[in-house]
Amino acid sequence: MKEVLFIIEGLFGGGAERALVELLKHIDYARYNVTLGVVFAGGIYTKEIPSQVNLFHIFSDNETSFESSLRRKALRYCKKYGNTWLLKFLFRQKCKKHHFDTIISFIEGYPILFHSTICKWAKLNISWIHCDLYYQHWTTAYYHSDHDEKRCYEKMDKIVFVSRNSMESFNRLYETSNAKMHLYNIVDAENIRRLSKQKVVMHDRFTITSIGSLYKVKGYDRLVRVAKLFKDKGYTLRFQILGQGKELESLLRMRDELGLQEDVVFLGFEENPYPYLRQSDIFVSTSLSEGLSYVICEALVLGIPVVATKTSGGMELLENGKYGILTEHDDASIYEAIKKLVDSTTLCKEYQEKSLSRSNIFNIDETMARFYEII
């Protein structure tokens, strides 16, 4: 039986975390013994981890405040001085096994930083990249320098990207000699459609939905301003945003200052967002950067017309505008793209059909077969 270790930062509700959960649900546990190391304990997806997975946390919920403080100081020390021996010590304390066939750091940042210290524990070391690091190099805060980050990637045998475009962007950022390939995340279309019918969500307005973590990279401030443009033009629309994150307070303040309390609704995190998505008229992604937007995949599966800003993942999923409307990164462009669909029932119907057609690219059996080849 093959021993595989996954490393992820947390299970708090992001697209990469969702992708990992779906992957773990489809692994053949008769062939693979899987361990999952989570840097920070907690998170809404923890309960969805299959029982066959051996789970451990580097920072546990039951640690004393003194223990937690020491570990966090160790992280800060490693980032500041580029010395990673403490990270290996922390990982060794929590991970009982020290020999694997494959180790996979499943997201950028802390997972690959920890992974880089234990590469000798495995025959094969792989990193997964879920974003476009060239256009949104958010991981710089995790490393002492760009050189240190590049060195972590150079220790990997393979780097897997969730889209072809994000792979090409990475090659513009770092020149590394390891094998690189792309593999779409698992999208369980049958399960998404089943879950979308569990709850009825009725609206009396044309409804525009967006789903994601409330961080600056998602560009939700632009969507709030676009809602104001529609209201000023006399439209009565419902903009609903599902997700949680540290930008919530500033977004609520912006909404209230613009007088949009009845027009823009923040619904928080929903374990099952699919009924909201299924009964939407349009799905909108306003992200500054995306490796491969998981929620765009879900909107396609449910046949919802998609409007998305031009990001690596969005352009690839929508095939440069063939299966959805792509916009520039400004309020006016986003407004005009949404307006086309709001003003035309015929166009909406056309893009519903295009979404369903594009969703045929998601095939679980093919994705898992390719995954097994990679690891």
UniProtKB/TrEMBL annotation:
Coiled coil: none
CDD domains: GT4_GT28_WabH-like
A Pfam family reported for this protein in Swiss-Prot or TrEMBL: Glycos_transf_1
EC class of the enzyme, as a word: transferase
Keyword Flavoprotein: no
Enzyme Commission number: 2.4.1.291
Annotated Gene3D superfamilies: Glycogen Phosphorylase B
Annotated ranges, domain Glycosyl transferase family: 195-354
Glycosyltransferase in keyword set: yes
Name this polypeptide is given: N-acetylgalactosamine-N, N'-diacetylbacillosaminyl-diphospho-undecaprenol 4-alpha-N-acetylgalactosaminyltransferase
Originating species: Bacteroides cellulosilyticus
Lineage of source species: Bacteria, Pseudomonadati, Bacteroidota, Bacteroidia, Bacteroidales
